[in-house]
Amino acid sequence: MAEMLSGGDMLIRALQDEGVEYIFGYPGGSALHIYDAIFRQQKIEHILVRHEQAATHMADGYARSTGAPGVVLVTSGPGATNAITGIATAYMDSIPMVVISGQVPSDLIGTDAFQETDMVGISRPVVKHSFMVRDAAEIPGVVKKAFHIATTGRPGPVVIDVPKDTTDPSATYAYEYPENVNLRSYKPAFAGDMDQVNRVIAELLVAKRPVFYVGGGVIQADAETSLRALVRAVNAPVASTLMGLGAYPGSDSQSLGMLGMHGTYEANMAMHEADLILALGARFDDRVTNNPDKFSPRATIVHLDVDPASVDKIIRSDIALVGDAGWVLNALWDAYQARDAERDAAAREAQQQDIAKWWQQLEQWRSAHGLNHNLQPHEGQSILPQLAIQSLYRVTKGDAFVTSDVGQHQMFAAQYYHFDEPRRWINSGGLGTMGFGLPSAMGVQMGNPESVVACVTGEGSFMMNMQELSTCLQYGLPIKIINLNNQALGMVKQWQDMQYGGRHSQSTYSDSLPDFKTLVEAFGHVGIRVSDPLELDAAMTTAFAEENKNRLVFVDVWVDPNEHVYPMAIKGGAMNDMILSRPQEAAS
Amino acid sequence: MRSILAVLLENEPGALSRVVGLFAQRNYNIESLTVAPTEDTTLSRLTLTTSGDQEKITQIMKQLDKLVEVVQVVDLCKAEHVERELLLIKVRAEGAARAEIKRSADVFRGQIVDVTAQTYTIQLVGPSAKLDAFVRAIDDSGVNATILEVVRSGVSGVGRGNHILAL
Lengths: 588, 167
Prior knowledge:
The complex is a heterodimer. Chain A is α/β, with parallel strands linked by helices. Helix content of chain A is 38%, strand content 17%. Chain A contains 22 helices and 22 strands. In chain A, the strands form 5 sheets. A 6-stranded parallel β-sheet of chain A has the order 3-2-4-5-7-6, with helices on both faces. In chain A, strands 11-10-9-12-13-14 form a 6-stranded parallel β-sheet, with helices on both faces. Chain A is globular, with a radius of gyration of 25 Å. The N and C termini of chain A lie far apart (77 Å). The model of chain A has no long low-confidence stretch (mean pLDDT 97). In chain B, strands 5, 6, 7, 8 and 9 form a 5-stranded antiparallel β-sheet that branches. In chain B, strands 2-3-1-4 form a 4-stranded antiparallel β-sheet, with helices on one face. Chain B is α+β, with helices and mostly antiparallel strands. Chain B is elongated, with a radius of gyration of 19 Å. The interface between A and B is medium-sized, with 20 and 19 residues.
């Protein structure tokens, strides 16, 4: 006979049956029955944050680094609205997440009750789907549907709004967790179309200047193995989006690094001059394409995406591949091997020569204007932010999980830290959420307790969620925070330098910054401050040393406040229109 | 280009607000919208008119299809279809204008459904363009026929013959 449980107990039991390890949340009136259910069980650990936005970013970091959905629990009203930024962040980057929000009792909904807000309404544009529980008996089914929707197709956040009366401990129901879910109106594509796959391979076998343009969809689908095999077999270059870094190893010679607004010269030139672009799990974001009308004029465009609405949205594709990136990439790799084996040696030889010529061109671009990954410290100068990332890369041997906030430090990290594995680079790409870095690093550390987790941030972003230093102490999270302190909102200031005659409107605050070393020490952590480039490596080494293995260490790196991120796309231009340096910027 | 989209939607609370919200959020235009349950009470059917080039209409349909509660979407204008809209128009009808208005209503096969000494209320069913023409005819009739109120239902549509939208 089925067990009799209250709505609150059913909710938590359903999360247990879904295999949830952690709930990131913050209690409040409408959620108290649920919190009592959490108290009376041991299977799921609840992580108490200091602000609900951080709970959503923690769940997000957990999801991005492990592949499992993140789970958030907040109360109604301000608890729910505080969660919105994190939900929107997850939505823009297609991250699986289930957010449970308490709601005022059903009979008070619509009366402007204390801590009432229309959570389903307010979250609607930034969720994949949402549910309002109308009857306690439907809770197990709703939870099952929510996880199914959040994790399949193009993943995304799902909100479950739970009126307090539906979790009332005095009413019990027969609990049974559904084995399957069948929604007639939701059937996401999984298998691709083999005819389309074969058309792609036909193009790939004759391409002279192919480029793989790889996005976060490949990482989401855990499709890196077949991607890497195919890239190597073709001997093609790989340009990665901000979200796709790590799908193909960043330190491999076939990687051109990141493309787009702050992408490498060689990646953007390759995209512009290609004759075949394979866009895999990428969505032709405006930060990639620059002006779509001038995008890659000579290329045949192949677009793989699990979301049919992404295909032909910005750039019209010549061959569309709709389906799971893992399924489609496996099919592409199998088909490539079969067709390559069939073709005659002369055809293969001819293509290899074409691609060798393509590599001559690519290497020429790379050596002319590629990033310098061998920067040297100079006595008496400020620390270059790029040098700090290079130091982090060396000290962590390229093997850390790295989260970031948003701004110049984010671009420097994406450019200078080579990610060789997927799910190691965690940042808010689509929404560009400052305040993401620290809490997402906490979620990454919870999901990967034995791994080294670094948060590359700037003092502006860090101060948006620094209250979580307290949470880090409570749960013993030994994150290493690398604060590229330029005493300004660096990216805003850069745009003001480049486009507003150097008028730094509201982007500086150097007279009012806290002493971060003392600040983090007050929170019970280790603080290090470094401003001499010759002491940078030592500071970084100390941060990651054995003696600090179990401590949160904050390295306040005072960097050159005048440094700009280059390359930078020229607004309205094609992908090959870039400003590469300050002298070029000054001349233009 | 005008499109008439027919949408089968789960008949659930909040489903309609997702459709309407999608149009606002993505800056698509809704010219008219009608919605009601179907013979299957778990489903609502919605007819929506919008406009845009083919790429835009395709994108609208894909975005609609992505909504979890949307079961099916078709563009009725892609094939033979029947389109109908209901118009109720209340007109000041006094003196010589009464006969003229009645004649116009007859020409358009409208029905006078309410009469007072000063007003006529006329009901007319047909494609939107016919309704537009009738309103213009009354407005331009030259007699003293002031339009007092116009109520239109928005377009409902169905594919002809074997073009069937159902589960």
